[in-house]
Here is the input.
Amino acid sequence: MSTQGKSVDLDPAASAFLAAYIEAKAKIKEWEEKANVAADQVKAALGDSEIGKVNGREAIKWTFVESKALDVKKAREVLSAELVAQLETTRTSRRFVLVEEE
Here is the structure.
């Protein structure tokens, strides 16, 4: 199913959308940086509290969340190779990556 190396010259419309995409990604990055700075300031104000209020009304929650994940490296150490092979799944997806100019 590999199409690695296959390429196409983008038409003017697709090239314009690519330029718009690049510009939007740059703006998103800028706003994410601003959001992260603001979130860090709010987290500092919250300290070890989980709920922040503005004018007596709950405005933000910063709660603890516990999640579990399978440690694949450890599973390979303690389980047989056959069992690990039965549990493994392979997913195929496409990654949309901008090629950086040098």
Observations:
- The longest strand covers residues 57-61.
- Residues 29 and 35 are 10 Å apart (CA to CA).
